[in-house]
Amino acid sequence: MSSSVLDRTGIAAGPVRTDQPDDAPAAPARWRRVARRLTPARKATGLLTVLVLWQVGAGAGWLGTTTPSPTDVITAARELIASGELAHHLGVSLTRVAKGLAIGLSAGLLLGLAAGLLRLAEDLVDGPLQSLRMLPHLALVPIFIIWFGIGETSKIVLIAIGPIFPLYLNVLHGIRGVDERLVESARSCGVGRLGLILRVILPGALPQILVGLRQALGLGWLSLVVAEQTATTAGVGFLMNDAREFLRTDVIFVVLVIYALLGLATDLFVRLIERRALAWRRGFAGE
Average pLDDT for residues 198-212, to the nearest whole number? Predict the structure, then answer.
């Protein structure tokens, strides 16, 4: 359709196109929707680029003669899967990290909640935790072996120690970062202490808590790597040590890729929780 508009003299200035409906989406909005659908593909481009560079570098000899290519690593992984060896050692490692993370995440969350909500609890636990946070994992291995022996207990305790500190810090600072005006407004509306914690403080601290959870899970996998390097008879760490003795660099890279994929999987899981739990938040998502 077209219509005419009048200029200042009252003479028709010419037809004006009105073909486009009023509710037609703007071009930028359409491009944003297309970009949102392509997000998984865009996020995979980085990993694909690394794999291509790795394959080219290994084939050309740029990475050294002993560095396997991705195709060699895939072949070694198939052999381990066919023999059942990979499933056995992976199951042992997953059991260890599950037990350690269950203890460490629970302790970090409870300590962070206590210190964030109660000043007395912060005075009691913050100093010792800040001191222990600076100790490297490798320095704790001989102590845990002396205390708990060389069995599973020392490894689980070592895995549990790592995630406590990042989760504790993020829970504490997430709670303390809640706007005091929101707390006072809720109190003025008659909200009790429990309702204040559940409806105001924890939702306000949730973004920071989830960041701490991502960091804690990553540190849990790093702790597993350290734990399985000493006096281990099963687990993917043992598989790596055994491959090192026989100069099987392809198997060593299989284990490294497994560690990386497990860490990536847990991080994606937390990000999915974050997307669902924080759907109300409208933050800057980049250009």
Answer: 89
Classify strands 2-6 and 12-17 as parallel, antiparallel or unpaired. antiparallel
235-287 pLDDT, tens digit per residue, is 888 888 888 888 888 888 999 889 888 888 998 898 888 888 887 776 655 55
pTM of the model: 0.77
Query: How far is 134 from 163, CA to CA, in rounded Å?
Result: 13
Q: How far, in Å, CA of 236 to CA of 258, rounded? A: 8
Would you put residue 14 in left (φ > 0), alpha (ψ -120 to 50) or beta? left
Question: Which two three-digit tokens encode residue 155?
Answer: 């490894």
In the chain, what are the helix, strand and coil shares in percent, each to the nearest 5?
A: 75, 5, 20
Closest to 227 (Cα-Cα) out of 165, 164, 156: 156
Tell me the three state secondary structure of residue 126. helix
C-alpha 200/C-alpha 186 separation (Å) is 8
Q: Can you tell me the distance from the alpha carbon of 149 to that of 106, in angstroms, rounded to the nearest whole number?
A: 24
Q: Is 247 left (phi over 0), alpha (psi -120 to 50) or beta?
A: left
- pLDDT score, position 4: 45
Contact call for residues 255 and 243 (beta carbons, < 8 A): yes
Beta pairing partners, 17: 2
Residue 218, CA distances (Å) to 79, 128, 261 in order: 28, 23, 11
Beta bridge partners of 6: 12
Tell me, what's the pLDDT at 1?
A: 47
> Are the C-beta atoms of 272 and 101 separated by less than 8 Å?
no
3-state secondary structure of 177: coil
